[in-house]
Specification:
0% strand, mainly alpha, 2 helices, 76% helix
Length: 51
């Protein structure tokens, strides 16, 4: 049973590391194409304006 738990944790750690890597690589791309993404989704970004 100990070996099974160890393998499950290793698998979860690998999945978490893969998701983290994908997010870290995709965030700058998504930020640079934010305007095109917003247009494609039909949404607008809100902005706080101080007077």
């Amino acid at each position: 049973m100990q070996g099974v738990k160890k393998e499950v944790w290793k698998g979860l750690a690998a999945i978490t590391a893969a998701i983290f890597t994908i997010v870290m690589m995709a965030a700058p791309v998504a930020e640079s194409y934010a305007g095109k993404i917003n247009t494609a989704l039909g949404i607008s970004t809100t902005r706080i304006v101080s007077e």
